[in-house]
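Aim 2 progress update. The chain analyzed this quarter is reproduced below.
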Amino acid sequence: MGIGEAIAKLFLREGAKVVLCSRDLARTKAAEQRIGGGANTLSAACDVSKRDQVDALVKSAVAKFGRIDIFVNNAGFGLNDAVADMDMGELRRMFDTNLFGAVECIQAVVPIMRRQGGGDIVNISSVSGHISTPYMSGYAATKHAMNAIGKAARMELLRHNINVLTVCPGYIATDFVKNMVKGKRAERVGSSVKYAVGPEVVAQATLQGLLKRKREVVTPRIYSLFISMYHTLPGAVERRIRKALKPTSQVMSEAAKKSN
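Predicted structure tokens:
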């Protein structure tokens, strides 16, 4: 669903053969039907925090289509809580999916791409990988780490004609906030809702970044301005962030109104 489904739909429309995966096979098959399905798609169940399932996914993709040209690391979830109170078990579980799962997938697919003579790996990160916000520190940490690993991997793999693209979306109108784990202190930056766009914008930015073999794409572009401001005037940006904090339930309500 969300960004992953939007990318699958766009890439299928552009002529790609698409393998969709999630932990819940029934939900994956439902997404496959929504995007058009057919002989050019394959649905699979995979928990990226479990290496045996990642290896099985890669094996299934190669068995079905003969090769893997593009691998999109999109699996992830959020943890909304204060640093002083957050559940360490939930934090570790999030790192297992958001970061270590992505690394496992890279390690599983790189040998195939080397044999093929090249390929592209896409890491769906976040603007949070550049700017940490209160009560989303754990999530931001997974994305900061993903950015670091992805950019280093890009330098390591370019000699094999493998590009690693890091995609950093801002606030996107999906069920991310609804589905994230909420702790004792659940607050969010409320002003981000007004900049929300649909996941289709992220899919299109991903496609363009792939075609140009870019290092990084920030989408929507207005967030590039926020990142630049944070680098030059961090205190001013942090004051604005603190003033914009609202209870997560209120942010979800505002987001629902915007989507309607």
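The beta strands are 18-22, 41-45, 70-73, 79-80, 119-124, 162-169, 181-182, 187-189, 216-219, 245-247. The chain has ten helices and ten strands. These observations will guide the mutagenesis experiments scheduled for the next reporting period.
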